[in-house]
Design a protein that fits this description.
2 helices; alpha+beta; four-stranded antiparallel β-sheet; Alpha-Beta Plaits; 97 residues
Length: 97
């Protein structure tokens, strides 16, 4: 099993939700209004007058065979929507009921 955390500009929310549905990833948790700044030239997303945009984050725990298709979709979204940004981070997890 793998944990995948996806952090994205809120402008991409519908695309991220559609992607999860398309890939039949049913279980996830979402955090709205996530503040931060990307490492690859990203502008801050702070919900302030100066930096008004915000990010959101999704975490899902999925089978190993679903990771590569998910990362491929995320990469495609990022290539098409270069102004807003999306990133994914993956790590191994154990347990669950």
């Amino acid at each position: 099993m793998k944990a995948v955390m996806i952090i994205f500009n809120q402008a991409l929310t519908e695309k991220v939700e559609f992607m999860l549905d398309f890939l039949e990833i049913q279980g996830y948790s979402m955090w709205e209004e996530v503040k931060g700044r990307g490492t690859k030239g990203g502008e801050p997303r702070m919900n302030t007058h100066t930096w008004p945009e915000m990010n959101s984050a999704v975490m899902t725990i999925i089978e190993d065979n679903k990771v590569e298709p998910l990362l491929a979709k995320i990469k495609k979204i990022d290539e098409i929507n270069t102004e807003v940004g999306i990133r994914a981070f993956v790590w191994s997890v154990e347990g669950g009921y």
